[in-house]
């Protein structure tokens, strides 16, 4: 058994929600996002050696597994209602909030894959730009450019809708 | 952080299903009964080198404990002892055989017997 398994398990417990949201951004399907996480941890538990940036390594493993899921079969034809957001209407959910949530989901889906993924990883995956650069194996400058451009498009689209 | 970012962060996220935990944790491999060194994944080259060093060390220890025996000169065969019994008229006692023997080196021996007298 890998000596890091306890560490991977700790990261899973701490970042379960974030990992799921990041995988869902790629697969557009909750079931396949969960399949990706399961597959990623199957591989992680059998990792040899000690990666340098453990958290980024786990997120990268989940991202790669989600991309593999997408390669096996394309995303569902119908877009997911509310995308990565909770579709349940709770008693505390005001109608205005619900509307804003729908608009954000739509605006996110209108972004390029890189911009959307960067915004989700930063806002909802709670990853720093440096960690995102490690996850994506991309220069830091590129990541911040994707984020800035994506956020500007998102803001413009939301202002346009409201 | 501006207002838009604050509002974006506040949006509730879709949750994974309840059985995701059990699915993920089930991926942990079963603990094996391998010795710890094997479990840690010692590289093959390192194991082979260690094995070779052990063999060399064992051989060296054996050489120190039991040095090889140096082969000595070839053993010469035991000389042949021939006892000549004679009844010389000079001998006082015909049964005194104390000087009646002669040693010869090993090998082919040619003997010449001369009978000078009889009883």
Question: Brief description of this entry?
Answer:
The complex is a heterodimer of chains A (162) and B (119). Chain A has 7 helices and no strands. Chain A is mostly helical and 162 residues long.
Characterise this structure.
The complex is a heterodimer of chains A (162) and B (119). With 162 residues, chain A is mainly alpha-helical. Chain A has two domains: 77 residues, no CATH class; 70 residues, Arc Repressor Mutant, subunit A. In chain A, α3 packs across α6. Chain A starts with a helix and ends with a helix. The mean pLDDT of chain A is 88. Chain B is rod-shaped. A two-stranded antiparallel sheet of chain B has the order 1-2. Chain B has a domain of 45 residues. The relative contact order of chain B is 0.07. By secondary structure, chain B is mainly alpha-helical. Chains A and B meet through α1, α2, α4 and α7 of A and α1 and α2 of B.
Keywords summarizing the entry:
heterodimer, A: 162 residues, mainly alpha, Arc Repressor Mutant, subunit A, 7 helices, 70% helix, globular, B: 119 residues, two-stranded antiparallel ribbon, 4 helices, rod-shaped
Main β sheet profile of chain B: 2 strands, antiparallel
Give the uncertain stretches of chain A in residue-range form: none
The fraction of residues assigned to DSSP E strands of chain B is 5-15%
**What oligomeric state do these chains adopt?**
heterodimer
Per the principal axes of the C-alpha atoms, what is the gross shape of chain B? rod-shaped
Instruction: Specify the helix fraction band of chain A.
Output: over 70%
- Kindly report the greatest chain-chain contact and the residue count on each side: A-B, 36 and 26 residues
User: Quick one: how many beta strands of chain B?
Assistant: 2
C-alpha Rg of chain B (nearest Å): 49 Å
The topology string of helices and strands of chain A comes to: HHHHHHH
Spatial shape of chain A: globular
Mean pLDDT, all residues of chain B: 75
Cα-based radius of gyration of chain A, to the nearest Å: 16 Å
Please report the number of helical segments of chain A.
Answer: 7
Mean model confidence by pLDDT of chain A: 88
Percentage of β-strand residues of chain A:
under 5%
- Could you give the count of β-strands of chain A? 0
């Amino acid at each position: 058994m890998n000596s890091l398994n306890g560490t991977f398990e700790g990261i899973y417990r701490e970042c379960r929600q974030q990992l799921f949201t990041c995988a869902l951004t790629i697969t557009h399907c909750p079931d396949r996002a969960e399949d990706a996480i399961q597959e990623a941890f199957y591989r992680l538990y059998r990792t040899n050696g000690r990666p340098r940036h453990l958290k980024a390594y786990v997120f990268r493993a989940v991202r790669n597994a989600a991309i593999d899921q997408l390669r096996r079969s394309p995303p569902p034809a119908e877009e997911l209602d509310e995308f990565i957001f909770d579709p349940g209407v709770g008693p505390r959910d005001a109608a205005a909030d619900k509307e804003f949530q729908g608009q954000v989901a739509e605006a996110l889906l209108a972004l390029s894959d890189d911009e959307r993924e960067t915004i989700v990883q930063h806002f909802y995956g709670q990853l720093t730009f440096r960690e995102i650069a490690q996850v994506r194996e991309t220069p830091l400058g590129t990541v911040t450019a994707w984020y800035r451009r994506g956020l500007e498009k998102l803001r413009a689209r939301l202002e346009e809708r409201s | 952080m501006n207002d838009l970012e604050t509002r974006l962060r506040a949006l509730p996220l879709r949750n994974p299903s309840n059985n995701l935990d059990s699915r993920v944790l089930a991926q942990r491999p079963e603990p094996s009964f391998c010795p710890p060194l094997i479990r840690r994944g010692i590289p093959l080259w390192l194991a082979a080198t260690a094995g070779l060093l052990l063999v060399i060390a064992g051989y060296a220890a054996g050489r120190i404990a039991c040095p090889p025996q140096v082969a000595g000169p070839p053993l010469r065969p035991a000389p042949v002892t021939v006892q000549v019994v004679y009844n010389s008229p000079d001998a006082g006692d015909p049964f005194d055989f104390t000087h009646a023997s002669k040693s010869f080196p090993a090998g082919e021996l040619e003997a010449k017997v001369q009978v000078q007298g009889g009883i």
